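User: I'm writing a short methods note and want a consistent example. For S-adenosyl-L-methionine-dependent methyltransferase, I'll paste the sequence; you return only the structure tokens, no commentary, since I'll be parsing the reply automatically.
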Amino acid sequence: MPDFDKQSYWHQRFESETAFEWLIPSTTFMPILDAFLEKLPESDANILHLGFGTSDLQTHLRTRGFDNITNVDYEPLAIERGRHLEKAAFGDVKMRYITADATHLDAVSDISFQKYHLVIDKSTADAISCAGDDAVLAMAQGIHRSLADGGVWISVSYSAFRYDIPQLPFDVEVISKIPTAKARATDPDIYHYCYLLRPKPKA
Ligand SMILES: C[S@@+](CC[C@H](N)C(=O)[O-])C[C@H]1O[C@@H](n2cnc3c(N)ncnc32)[C@H](O)[C@@H]1O
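Assistant:
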């Protein structure tokens, strides 16, 4: 299995990859997110998008009216791709792009001084989980500290067990099970999971 938790893996991959969607396309994800986006004031909503890679999700969010978005990836080539994609789509760059490790969000002053109404990751926790549950827990703890009152984390994963971590500071709910494509009708049902993570009260 590739080293999905290693930056070197993503650096090598993004040298040639300019656009790729893990698990589900943004056109599938946006209708799920919409129930949460519609509760947020477009101008004020502070959104954190972790591990955006070469996805176009952030341009869908901006099209929907949100541009106070901080897109984070630890691979600088993703930052380059993201800025380029936004400029090509809108003619300017309004969103923020930060090179940072999602398992050490506290170390990033641009993030640790902010409070987010919505944190989104699509398969970033999956990549991080290759370093073990402690790495996912570190990501979760950083998100927990960064959330505004009433803020939530929405995460898409291939795993039905992604957040079965005893010390996780979130209440976890599956809000959508997205069926994967079958090569044959007789293939087993396989799903991707969209999680809603609500912070447990801070100790
Ligand atoms: C499986 S890809 C998902 C990319 C994108 N969200 C999508 O759905 O297509 C995982 C992404 O997370 C990034 N990543 C992995 N570990 C990270 C970490 N510790 N901190 C920040 N980004 C990380 C990788 O560089 C990659 O862009």
